[in-house]
C-alpha cells in the first residue's frame, strides 16, 4: 500500500484534527527514519495507521478486545490505552498489512514497553514531538530526538509518567517497563 492509498484508507475514520495530527506524525517519523536509517516504508505505514482506531466507540474496542486474543488485562486500564492494540489486531484483516514490525509499533505507541525496536521508538517519539504538541519540557525532547533515540524516548516516558502521577491516573505496567529499561540502558552506556 503506498502513502496515498494508506492516507485514503485512514481518512474516513478520523476527524480533520486527528487526521492532521497523523500527517504531522508521519512527517516527523519519516525525518527520524532517515536520520536513524530505519525502513521508510514500514515507518510510513506504522505512522499513518497508529491512531486508526483512536476515534472508534469505546464499546466497539471493548468487544474487539474481549473477542480476540488481545489480553483482557487492557480492560483494567483507561480506554485511551486500547486504540493501539486494537488497531494492531485489525491491521491484517482490515488493511492487509502483515508486517509484525509495523503491528508492534502501532500496538505499543501509547504505552511503550521494554526492549522497543528502533521503529517502535520512532513512532512513540514522533507521536510525542510532532509540531502540534505542546507539553511541558517538549523542546528538550525535540532537541534530543536527533541526538539519541533512547535518551529522547526516556525523556518522553519520564514526562508522561510524571503527568499521569500528577493526575493520579493508573500507570500501565509496560510504561514503567519502558522507563526502567531505558534508564538501565542509558546508565550502562554512560558508564562505558
Ligand atoms: O493517540 P494520541 O492522542 O495521539 O497519543 P497516545 O496514543 O500517546 O495517547 C495519549 C493518551 O494516553 C493520553 O491521554 C495519556 C494516555 N496514557 C498514556 N500512557 C498512559 C496513559 N493513560 C494512563 N491512564 N496510563 C498510562 O500508562
Ligand atoms: Fe494514539
Ligand atoms: Fe497519535
TrEMBL record:
The keyword Metal-binding applies. It comes from the Bacteria. SMART domains: HDc. GO terms for molecular function: bis(5'-nucleosyl)-tetraphosphatase (symmetrical) activity; metal ion binding; nucleotide binding. Residues 14-141 form the HD/PDEase domain. It catalyses: P(1),P(4)-bis(5'-adenosyl) tetraphosphate + H2O = 2 ADP + 2 H(+). It holds the Pfam family HD. It is an enzyme of class 3 (hydrolase). InterPro entries: Diverse_Catalytic_Enzymes, HD/PDEase_dom, HD_domain, YqeK. Keywords: Hydrolase, Iron, Metal-binding, Nucleotide-binding. Its EC number is 3.6.1.41. NCBIfam families: bis(5'-nucleosyl)-tetraphosphatase (symmetrical) YqeK. This is bis(5'-nucleosyl)-tetraphosphatase (symmetrical). It comes from Pelagirhabdus alkalitolerans. The lineage of its organism: Bacteria, Bacillati, Bacillota, Bacilli, Bacillales.
Amino acid at each position: 500500500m503506498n502513502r496515498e492509498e494508506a492516507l485514503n484508507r485512514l481518512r474516513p475514520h478520523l476527524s480533520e484534527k486527528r487526521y492532521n495530527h497523523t500527517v504531522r506524525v508521519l512527517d516527523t517519523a519519516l525525518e527520524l527514519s532517515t536520520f536513524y536509517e530505519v525502513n521508510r516504508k514500514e515507518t510510513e505505514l506504522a505512522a499513518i495507521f497508529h491512531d486508526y482506531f483512536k476515534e472508534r466507540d469505546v464499546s466497539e474496542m471493548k468487544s474487539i478486545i474481549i473477542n480476540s486474543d488481545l489480553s483482557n488485562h487492557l480492560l483494567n486500564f483507561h480506554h485511551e490505552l486500547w486504540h493501539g492494540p486494537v488497531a494492531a489486531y485489525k491491521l491484517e484483516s482490515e488493511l492487509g498489512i502483515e508486517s509484525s514490525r509495523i503491528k508492534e509499533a502501532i500496538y505499543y505507541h501509547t504505552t511503550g514497553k521494554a526492549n522497543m525496536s528502533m521503529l517502535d521508538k520512532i513512532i512513540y517519539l514522533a507521536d510525542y514531538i510532532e509540531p502540534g504538541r505542546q507539553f511541558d519540557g517538549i523542546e528538550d525532547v525535540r532537541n534530543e530526538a536527533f541526538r539519541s533515540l533512547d535518551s529522547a524516548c526516556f525523556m518522553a516516558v519520564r514526562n508522561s509518567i510524571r503527568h499521569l502521577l500528577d493526575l493520579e491516573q493508573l500507570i500501565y505496567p509496560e510504561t514503567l517497563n519502558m522507563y526502567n529499561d531505558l534508564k538501565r540502558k542509558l546508565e550502562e552506556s554512560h558508564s562505558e
